[in-house]
Design a protein that fits this description.
The protein is mostly beta strands. The chain folds into 4 domains: about 120 residues, Sandwich (Immunoglobulin-like), CATH 2.60.40.420; about 180 residues, Immunoglobulin-like (Sandwich), CATH 2.60.40.420; about 130 residues, Immunoglobulin-like; about 80 residues, Sandwich (Immunoglobulin-like). Helix content is about 5%, strand content about 40%. A 7-stranded mixed beta sheet has the order 14-13-12-16-21-18-19. A hairpin with a 2-residue loop joins strand 18 and strand 19. The longest helix is centred in the first third of the chain and has 14 residues. The chain is globular, with a radius of gyration of 24 Å. The structure holds CU-O-CU linkage and copper (II) ion (2 copies).
């Protein structure tokens, strides 16, 4: 009875006609960023305060706009009362900079990752990743966009004026209790928000507009479409632009996934259009369908009733306003160079299985396992040689679909149960939804980063499943192009990659505090670079402004001098 009353209340609110002007996150530009994780108070419902978590504000976080090739320096200050981490989802960074569950930031502490942006222009995001608390910290509000720009994207006639014709939209669902407190975890996610706004409306100019869609929900899948069923154009997937626009009427977005789309609002001034999720079209067996499991006997606690399950519903509304100067009015015909890795390049296929820990009607409530094991912080599940090209073949033997995500790399989907992927999934990806009884094979290369003290993660991006242990970890290890040497007796030191393109990492196995000062000489003995390693940062030397050639790198530790020849490509 109680659920029924709550359900009616939420139903009314979700589908009420009053529209709220959407919030567009602020931007931070440049190469030095300060992110303050903080508690906040936010009104999802006018006049009713909800306790939230945000970055530099009460909820969500600023959009970081960065350029490929830039060396960026981020300080994350944790003003929460809880330990957490911040992960740069989709970005190709070293494991120490990746912000996985091992790289914790205690309350009051700061973390200072520094890395070169190696990614293609696209839409990435950041969110907390503390083991067993990822869902709590994300659901409380911490998530932000990262927009990477590059010269290839800049050369295209695309909308790219942030907040004018280019909009980031993070779609999430939440559960509120009667006092408007956020409930985590929950399968009763009856309230839909876009950029933290319920019943969101966005003013768009009467021209071609770019939307950067992110499914930031803990569990729910969306089947994106427009209320008049018009065609729209997907231009990007998780890891950047597609080779050509993909004209579609539907686009499925699973948790963690991004899609950049173009919508043509030309000649529509004064009209409105809704972004929809056509979830009635979902086959059972995925979160968001009428039945989230494959078997009719299986139920997920508190999943029903929910006005979003197995029905078509509006996500937000567009209100078309005046066309602005320098409008983009056409959909381009070609986009970026996408270079899939040929299957023949793979040196190994790794087989992974996704299973439910228990059988029977309750199995949807978890746990879920990868290769019959639950996550263990102390177990490295795979050790991968640097530069390996690998096929990961993942079979879902459980009754619910799982969005599989891997850190460090972008991958290319080879096939789903033997069939080539649809156009929407032919670009660079870091999340893939795997249906029950489906095998997805993807191919990827583990390049550039190895031998960090912490591993990378792979996991289900349903945050309930991830927190519950549906995760594993891998280390990338150097083979030929990392040379290990001894310093101070028993300490092992690795310098990689070598040759290097933009940065040199130094990893020290036991302690990071022993190295004090570095110098880089050219072959004629002239110092071209020197600096100090600070105690709490990663040991990274930026070679971006150094000419190609051979150099001598020298470090001083407390007791010894260490010299290594390196090549800058
Ligand atoms: Cu978006 Cu490992 O996470
Ligand atoms: Cu990630
Ligand atoms: Cu899962």
């Amino acid at each position: 009875m109680r659920t029924q009353i709550l359900f009616c209340l939420f139903f009314t609110l979700t589908f009420a006609n009053a529209q709220n002007q959407i919030t567009i996150p602020d931007t931070l530009n440049g190469t030095v960023f300060n992110l303050n994780l903080q508690n906040g108070t936010y009104q999802f419902y006018a006049g009713q305060n909800t306790q939230t978590m945000g970055v530099n504000g009460a909820i969500l976080g600023p959009t970081l706009i960065v350029n490929k090739g830039d060396f960026i320096d981020i300080t994350v200050n944790n003003h929460l009362e809880d330990t957490t981490t911040i992960h740069w989802h989709g970005m190709h960074v070293s494991a120490a900079n990746d912000g996985g569950p091992h790289t914790t930031i205690a309350p009051g502490a700061s973390w200072n990752p520094r890395f070169t942006v190696l990614d293609k222009a696209g839409t990435y995001w950041y969110h907390p990743h503390l083991h067993e608390k990822t869902n709590l910290h994300v659901s409380k509000g911490i998530a932000g966009f990262i927009i990477v720009r590059d010269s290839e994207e800049a050369a295209l006639e695309l909308p790219r004026t942030y907040g004018v014709d280019d909009f980031p939209l993070v779609i999430q669902t939440k559960t509120f209790d009667a006092n408007k407190k956020i409930v985590v975890p929950s399968n009763a996610d009856t309230v839909l928000i876009v950029n933290a706004t319920i019943d969101a409306a966005l003013n768009v100019p009467a021209q071609v507009v770019r939307l950067r869609l992110l499914n930031g929900s803990s569990q729910r899948n969306f089947n994106i479409g427009l209320s008049d069923n018009r065609t729209f154009y997907q231009i990007g997937s998780d890891g950047g632009l597609l080779s050509v626009p993909n004209a579609v009427e539907r686009l499925r977005l699973t948790p963690g996934e991004r899609a950049e789309i173009l919508l043509d609002f030309s000649n529509m001034q004064g009209q409105t259009l809704s972004l929809m999720s056509y979830a009635a079209e979902f086959a059972n067996g995925i979160y968001g369908a009428t039945n989230p499991g494959m078997g009719m006997m299986m139920s997920l606690n508190n999943y029903n009733p929910n006005p979003m399950n197995g029905t078509n519903f509006p996500i937000m509304q567009f209100i078309v306003t005046e066309k602005i100067a320098n409008a983009i009015t056409e959909i381009p015909t070609t986009l970026a160079t996408v270079s899939p890795i040929p299957e023949s390049a793979a040196v190994i296929t790794r087989n992974l299985s996704l299973t439910a820990a228990s059988m029977g009607p309750n199995s949807l409530n978890g746990k879920f396992l990868i290769n019959n094991a639950s996550f263990d912080m102390d177990v490295i599940n795979y050790t991968i040689p640097l530069d390996n090209v690998e096929i990961w073949s993942i079979t879902n033997l459980s009754p619910i679909a799982h969005p599989f995500h891997i850190h460090d790399v972008q991958f290319f989907i080879l096939d789903r149960n033997g069939r080539a992927p649809v156009a929407a999934e032919q670009g660079r990806k870091d999340v893939v939804l795997i249906h029950p009884m489906e095998t997805v094979r993807f191919i990827t290369k583990f390049a550039d980063f190895a031998d960090d003290p912490v591993p990378y993660m792979y996991h289900c991006h349903m945050l309930t499943h991830e927190d519950d242990g549906m995760m594993g970890q891998f280390k990338v290890v150097s083979t030929t192009n990392v040379v290990e040497n001894k310093i101070d007796g028993n300490e092992t030191i690795a310098v990689y990659p070598n040759p290097a393109t933009s940065i040199i990492n130094i990893s020290v196995r036991q302690s990071r505090t022993k190295l004090k000062h570095y110098k880089l000489y050219d072959t004629r003995g002239r110092t071209v670079l020197e600096g100090d390693f600070s105690e709490n940062s990663d040991l990274v030397i930026d070679l971006k402004n150094i000419a190609s050639g051979i150099y001598i790198l020298e470090f001083n530790s407390e007791k010894q001098r260490f010299i290594k020849k390196i090549t800058k490509l």
